[in-house]
Amino acid sequence: MNEKLNPNFKELNISKPTLKALKKMGLSQMTDIQTAVLPKALSGDDIVATAKTGSGKTLAFLIPVVEVVVRNLNDQIPVTLCIIISPTRELAIQTYTVLKDIISFYNNISSTLIIGGESRKKQSEHLFNGVHIVVATPGRLFDHMRTKEFDYKNVSCLVLDEADKIYQYGFEEDLKQIITRLPKDRQTMLFSATKSETTEALIESAMKEDVHIINTNEDNDKATVDGLKQGYVVCETEYRLHWLHKMLKKSQKQKVMVFFSSCKSVVFHHEFLTRYCNLD
After folding, report:
1. Which string of DSSP letters, residue by residue, matches 74-89?
2. Cellular component terms, GO, for this chain's entry (predicted)?
3. Is 251 part of any domain?
């Protein structure tokens, strides 16, 4: 699909502060996945969407999530209306960052990030005081759902991002328990890069019968859009840092995201690259 044919965000029935935030982010036209998902999602329908990495799927579920909150806002203590589940803390942080941008022009929408590696006590306080949107990883979310501090009986929208990976990373039982505990009349949106037996099982357990199946992948064997260049280096463990530094130096004029397997690894590499390699 030619991107020029895709409609503008202004054509959607979304709130002015949301449009203002999108404009500030430099976004006007929708991507293919946003064009396919947003009208149905904004109508409250259940969605199962398969979209490649880099396709714009994050906004495809964040915009409807924000609109759900806008429609249900009141002057009382905030209650949790929407939950977004990500398979990893890194993806949850990334999603939460985009969410903060989207709600930047609202002064009455609250959100919180519930992930491992952070203070469970502070998270409990945020949930107890009331928060509209929760972005979380499955394990830590289920921990809080088993406490009296977290009231989730008003949740009307659940998003499962990278749903196939949630199972892949061993959160199958946690996710089943989460889905069972949430209100049955909620809207559910499931997103994944590829279609698998895992997503089929989730559709049966978590979705309504009249779910909309959306697939914007022209080639299901590819999990990323054509515009993303991919490559790899095979090397011994002791040379990984050398090659990482070499690749980053070569790409200094570009924006680069580097993912590591742990928080400690992130801290180490950040300190090393900024202190000794003049990279920041």
Report:
1. -SSS----EEEE-SSH
2. cytosol
3. yes
Q: Has residue 225 been placed in a domain?
A: no
135 neighbors 84 (Cβ within 8 angstroms): yes
User: Domain check: are 272 and 150 in the same one?
Assistant: no
Note whether residue 268 is domain-resident.
yes
Do 142 and 76 lie in a common domain? yes
Domain residues for 184? 3-215
- Name, in order, each residue with C-beta under 8 angstroms of 41's C-beta and a sequence gap of 6 or more: 47, 60, 61, 63, 64, 187, 189
Amino acid at 120: R
DSSP 190-257: EEESS--HHHHHHHHHHS-TTPEEEE--S-TT--B-TTS--------GGGHHHHHHHHHHHTTTS---
Kindly report the length of the chain. Answer: 280
Q: What are phi and psi of 171, to 5 degrees?
A: -105, 20
* Residues in Cβ contact with 24 at an 8 Å cutoff, skipping those fewer than 6 apart: 101, 104
Could you tell me if 242 and 209 lie in one domain?
no
User: pLDDT, tens digit, for every residue of 61-70?
Assistant: 999 999 999 9
Predicted confidence band at 280 (pLDDT cuts at 50, 70, 90)? low
CA-based radius of gyration for the chain: 20
- CATH, residue 198: 3.40.50.300
Rounded CA separation 153/247 (Å): 48
* Distance of alpha carbon 170 from alpha carbon 277, whole angstroms: 37
Q: Are 104 and 186 part of one and the same domain?
A: yes
How far apart CA 52 and CA 33 sit, in angstroms, is 9
Domain total of the chain = 2
Pairing relation of β-strands 187-192 and 111-114? Answer: unpaired
